[in-house]
Amino acid sequence: MFYYGACYYPEHWTPEQARQHIPLMQKAGFNVVRMGEFAWCKFQPDQGRFKFDWLDPVIESLNKAGIKTVLGTPTAIPPQWAIVRYPDILQKDQHGHVRNPGSRCHCCKNAPAYQILCETIVREMARHYAGFDAIIGWQVDNEFGCHYTTRCYCEFCEKAFRDWLLAKYKSTDALNEAWGTSFWGFEFRNWAEVPLPKAMPAAPNPGHWLDFARFSSDTQVKFMKTQYEILKSLCPKHFVTHNYMGTFPEVDYYKLSQYVDFPVWDNYPDPYGHPLAPAYAHDITRSFKGKFWVMEHKSGPTGDAAAGVLDEQPEPGDIRRWAWQSVANGADGVVYFRWRACLTGAEQYWHGILDHDGVPRRRYYEVSKIGEELARAAGELEGTSVETPVALIRNFDTLWSIERQPTIRGFSYDAHCFDLYTAAKASGHLCDIINSDAALSKYATVLAPCLAIVDTPLAGRLEEYVKGGGTLVLTPMSGTRTPANAMSDQTPPGLLAELAGLTAEEVRPYQHGQTHEVVFKTGPMAGKTATVGTWIEVLQPGDGAEIMAEYRGEPVAGRAAITHNRLGKGRVFYMGVYLPAPALREFLRACLPEFPVKHIPDGLEVTVRRDGQRRLLFLINHSGDRRDLMLPGQFTDLLSGEPVGPKVALAKNGVLVLRV
Ligand code: GAL
């Protein structure tokens, strides 16, 4: 079943207005709404007192109109009475300042009173709604860590952090050893001496920093687990999910995904940003469980509530293109944020399908057209999902390590992952985005950008994968660190050196815009050159490894920049440089399996959903112009019913869903 709808806040509207909303939703083809995630003060007007009659009639009326409900647990904002009664539930920032109420996400998940308050409201809601036919699932809380609140520095967190460290290291001696506290005389004699890494005059110890990032993420996971278990035990028929934030860097979503039936995420594409940025986040979210929804989908101008500014209106056709992009990358539900722009509160300017006046206009009609198209395609979509022979390792330890020490000003691990991702997409492949402990054997190619933190088991698994016939692509900084975020004492790429068949003899960080040319000696780019800068590694290939590209220009002229090593049945490519996007795209073609559609023009996204032999081919034109393409045959477009191919011309914003 494909779910289509909007986030709806009946608490913002009079019952009369709500009555007018429902037929309009029905006409737009909706079959689901998400409600309630910020309404704790309505559900529990005082301690021990619960109230559901403000929402139940709305749930029932929606149900009569064929619209099911996903309910939010409202724990992102407790009622004001709770703050007044338990003031120590408020978070503290790095400077020890209280994060004040008045907006949202200001409570500490390690504060015992807050934990009890949350468990109580969730249990009461679960008991009340367990028997409702109209409810299909729950969204726990809202966007954990939103507004950068994952990391709290209060006294409860300090205590919980020490307990977390005790469980991990057992003794302060082991902790001292792991963090290398002999540097800057930071040794601990007992747990009471271990602080949180609050604001400090100089840089924190990298081990201290990484463990605090892990602990803060684990705090969110534990909070999720508690609610997941309550909901699953009281409402076994309902699914439980949480709305992720795509590339949000603070919560380890691999761990969080143990406690969702499937994840959902909030997709606010920037009309001026890279058109594949949402696809990257779709693929991240899909890869956790093989299934996902978009729970907040942009439906109008968005912006920055804190700054009080608005971004551009989506142009006609944008919302449709984004919605189909979500489906093309595997979404089984699209829920817009929000039904109608609100009249009061911090997000007055925040986009609804309807504007403040509630009058249906072009965005509503576009959303309704998508509703019709989805209804037409729903049967064909049923049971299909995305499968791909390409994986990209995106690992939170590495992400956090590089967040603290990016090595080059402005370097972003995610931007580098995204470069590799878009290069793979240019060949037609979307990627599963996986953790470094995931099974690899089903992938023909594994891209492992900046895989800095490596231990012996990981090195062993990568070797086994390559020997078994896999293609592994490594990029700078690989194997340079230990899981404690210490530097490896082996020549880079450390534990991966044998596998890659080389050592990196020298790194040359270019903070001031210096560049080199690399010239390709072998492979698909033989004879071509590319300009590289930022960070280059001077590679020394061992026996058997082949130099694919070397540097021009002193002092590194003639030294290896990119190498290729064969091992068992597989191969390892090591790139000691960050290639610019066009060169990366061309180079990576040699590392990827064949894709049935060739020569995909710029700005055209191609994906496949399948169910056994049944395949749906999606073509989406993000380019702003017409795009021409040759298909390997003639197919039927599910949206228009027309035959298409082999020659195809897609207009601006064009979408084709072809039965193959
Ligand atoms: C999301 C959030 C929503 C709303 C929206 C506004 O991050 O989950 O509650 O604030 O942004 O753009």
Question: How do you describe this structure in short?
Answer:
With 660 residues, the protein is of the alpha/beta class. Helices cover 30% and strands 22% of the residues.
3D architecture notes:
- By secondary structure, the chain is of the alpha/beta class.
- The chain is built from 17 helices and 29 strands.
- Helix 11 packs parallel to helix 12.
- It has a 9-stranded parallel sheet.
- A hairpin with a 2-residue loop joins strand 23 (604-611) and strand 24 (614-621).
- The chain is globular.
- The protein folds into 3 domains: 3-150 and 210-381, Alpha-Beta Barrel (TIM Barrel), CATH 3.20.20.80; 390-589, Rossmann fold (3-Layer(aba) Sandwich), CATH 3.40.50; 604-659, Sandwich (Immunoglobulin-like).
- It starts with a strand and ends with a strand.
- Bound molecules: beta-D-galactopyranose.
- Residues 142-143, 146, 266, 296, 302, 337, 347, 350 line the site of beta-D-galactopyranose (GAL).
